[in-house]
Amino acid sequence: MFCKSCDTRFSSDTDFSEDIDGRSTTSAKGKRGKKAAGEKGKGGKGAGRINGHHQENGMENMMLFEVVKLGRSAMQSVVDDWIESYKHDRDVALLDLINFFIQCSGCKGVVSGEMFRNMQNSEIIRRMTEEFDEDSGDYPLTIAGPQWKKFKSSFCEFISVLVRQCQYSIIYDEYMMDTVISLLTGLSDSQVRAFRHTSTLAAMKLMTALVNVALNLSINMDNTQRQYEAERNKILAKRANDRLELLLQKRKELQENQDEIENMMNAIFKGVFVHRYRDAIAEIRAICIEEIGVWMKLYSDAFLNDSYLKYVGWTMHDKQGEVRLKCLTALQGLYYNRELNARLELFTSRFKDRIVSMTLDKEYDVAVQAIKLLTLVLNSTDEVLTPEDCESVYHLVYSAHRPVAIAAGEFLFKKLFSHREPEEEGAPKRRGRQSPTANLIKTTVFFFLESELHEHAAYLVDSLWDCGPELLKDWECMISLLLDDPLPGEEALTDRQETALIEIMLCTVRQAAECHPPVGRGTGKRVMTAKERKTQMDDKTRMTELFAVALPPLLAKYAMDSEKVTNLLQLPQYFDLEIYTTGRLEKHLESLLRQIREIVEKHTDTEVLEVCSKTYHSLCNEEFTIFNRVDIARSQLLDELVDKFNRLLEDFLQEGEEADEDDAYQVLSTLKRITAFHNAHDLSGWDLFTSNFKLLNTGIENGDMPEQVNTHTHKHRVKLYEHDTLSFSESSTRKKQMRAFCMMCQRYLTNVNTAVKEQAFTILCDLLLIFSHQMVSGGREHLEPLVYSSEDSLQSELLSFILNHVFIDQDDDTNSTDGQQDDEAVKIEALHKRRNLLAAYCKLIIYCVVDMKTGADIFKQYMRYYNDYGDIIKETMSKTRQIDKIQCAKTLILSLQQLFNEMLSDLGHGFDRSASSFCGIKELARRFSLTFGLDQVKTRDAIAMLHKDGIEFAFKDPSTQGEGGPPLNLAFLDILSEFSSKLMKQDKRTVHMYLERFMTFQMALQREDCWLPLISYRNSLQAGGDDDTMSVMSGYSSRGSSIRSKKIKPPAVTAGTSAAKRKLPEEESSSSEVWQQSMQTPVMLPSPHLTSTAMRDPKRGRDDSFMGVYPLPQDQHSQVTWMLAQRQQEEARQQQERAMNYAKLRTNLQQAIRRGTGLMEEDEEPIVEDVMMSSEGRMDDLNEGMDFDTMDIDLPPSKNRRERSELKPDYFDPASIMDESVSSIGLLSPCV
What is the annotated localization of this protein (predicted)? Predict the structure, then answer.
């Protein structure tokens, strides 16, 4: 038996030789009980190698690690070379193998022969730990790059080939495998992640190779047993006793070998797997679970039982997605083999709920594999999954993540559509509603309706497309279900079911024609293969041939149903129109056009009319010969509609106030039809301006025009201008008409009806954008006469409309009617409408249609309406800054000035600076400052201009108290200081000089609270300046200049520091307390200027940025200079003390970390946290009674032996899971 803690040395008295059969002459069974498992042989001195280096295989001075890493030699030849070396001197060969594992872990150290002979494994590992490179935490298994990715596969291959080549002799010599397993067990228990990771991977791959050896032994034992039984059953005369003895001897040897393999696998399983499947590192846990899945699949007779399955079940609760993924892939390999299903019954019953819950895993890859696993479970038996389990997977066909939806679609298809009616051999193939797929199509419809997600039919079709294309492309059956009468005894589809079937049919046609997922699922268009393109063309041809004939009768049957007609009329958009000519289907085209015309005449629903317009547009393709037919039909329809509209309008206007609702409805319905055709067709050939303008003018004069007539007339007018732009240049009358229409819309801005005003506003914004100076770009200078510039009055009215109808509280919105003010859906719709109005106006600002300064009224609402319009306003600021940085900055400061004036009008000039309104303006200024970004060079001019305008505004209005009082707007400087951090150092000096132009000598001497904004602003300009800016007295006192030196220069407060200060706790203090904690700012002498050297303490909040108030001495020239110099020296001394304290603290902290960890590696995951989280929260209970004596790997006997009569106890029962031998692994040892 192997032991994880065995560190005794192997003796070297074991002779190694092979007989002619390839077996070791040493009796493994007899010596195993006498030797300690961890002993090392002393062996020879290592002739032929020096420190493990090859000297005789053609790769001199190259270690085994380098050979495997380069991967230039075949792995079998590498292993053969090592075996030859082992036969020559096994100690030297083993030393080379040990160094191979050490170096594969990334360790720079080398195990010498002296260490190998005289030191224990634990001592060697401890010595190698000290050899690690502390500068890098990477090691070969984690280093990125193709070379190291290949190294990992070469590393695993080497171990597999090594065991395979040694399986007949060397692995049974009780030396090589004992040494390797003992080393890997010790390394896997190391606190160093690289050792633990590499040795665990090696041990698991070694275990997999041993499983293959055990499987081969089992097969050989079965064959030997059969040969023995056959020979023994012969009659005595024909029986060969010598052969019986040989077979008995061979069976005995095979049994001994199998016992040794069992001991090796038990040592690896108990010494490595049991501890590392709960490791703190997810990669290590994933390796263990992946390999145990391989063992159970390879050698199910030995490993596929509850003793090993429970590890996979527990690990399905792992917190890392990659580990859960390995659990599912391991189980898929087991459930795929139906012969193993009987052994998985108990596991399935215990962990089925967990697998079902993993279909909603936050990791999409895990969810996909969980659904695939449930599909395999479904294939094995239908009784395991309950209807509730299936329903939890069904709804995933509507998932936005396509792989999840595809997997769920396959599950749904297996569950609902896998049982088809068998067709009789030789019977003719049934078509239409008699086909075998008819019931499956009905089942799809029923499922779609029961899911109650009717707008997601395209998602359902896409989910089933890969697994059931024949079902979804059976359009002939769908058409038959809609048109043909039901068979005797068959229940007809209801109206709701027919609607769902038509929607599904449309989605299948679209999917076949476009060959890409619906919106929201695809990651972008991919290049189709030649086979996919051929399938696409074949599908389009077949669908066109079918629906070209069937669509007219379908439209005739459902002509009055708006929803069905809307879906049916979208089908021609996916037709191959050439089929109408090549297939001699012109009569069906005539029938289709006739049905569309009747639908236009019968319906007034906007959606139906627009889809009719799109269908005409799809059929009117000049590339096909059917263009003339469709164009004539469309022109005839429009002629009739325009004539009818003119006639009805004339009657309607003549009646005036006597017009009734029926007349208004007739005008409105005809106007709707004409408006719908403007979406996709050019109606410039019909003169519709005069009639529409007359209708709008009448509405202005009389004021009693119905709301819908007004709105649709406006819509129709703007579409006229969109389509007729090119023809406007041909006549100056068109320009006059456009201007007249704009004036008409401007007059409608004062309409009583809100919907009409909103429509007029939207149209005005669109027209101003269409006919702005942008229209002449791109070589369209001939449209210059049509450029229309808005007047100031129109801009003012548009801005007033925005302020009165967009920036309002939700409760003040009058758009919600019928007592639905509290209806969330109505509120959301109203907010969406207001957002569209604001976006329309912001586009005018962005494209310079209106003056950028008008954006100030928009920008100032940024904080108040941040949740509703913050994204729109922020994007507008970004775009305007790209157009003109300086003008954008002037607009921002203008918005702050407007808010400041509004505050003064409400609170008066003696307001408290702690008032919420003033704090709100400061916060808005801070937000504006953040939008300028970190690149001060790009925004240099804009920020400087912003400060210039702000200073001028602050000193614009003098004090009402006379020359000694502060200017009325002086408090604005406190707001302006929020932008000081965006100034460059040299610009701060310039702005400070500009500020001093507005200051008098008396202002610099003032220290009252009302002057604190000036003090604060001056300090913000002086903070972070260079030596010249931070001088005490520039050119005034030689003493002041000499005192300042590099040693005592105060630290510069950078913009980053200033921004960080806002997060300090001091920010929570009230503004009134901040202003009271004022600090001294030096006075400004007449000439030369005295500039402050007071620096903010980096460890204090931004609100403590003022110096204390000191009385000025009488001798200002000498006393002030001395005072400031002393202040500067004190600050320099404090700065040096803080730096020294920080260095000491850093050193002590580093030493404490080294003492606490003991090793250099740093794992990201928590060390003491239990990485296995049970779904029931009872992992501690599971750890209490686990009996690992039942976990000994007991290979099953020969199939000719007596079978085991019963299963082992239920190892999923918490009462029989863990024993004391595993209680120590509940919490891992600290892993650095």
Answer: Nucleus; Chromosome; Chromosome, Centromere
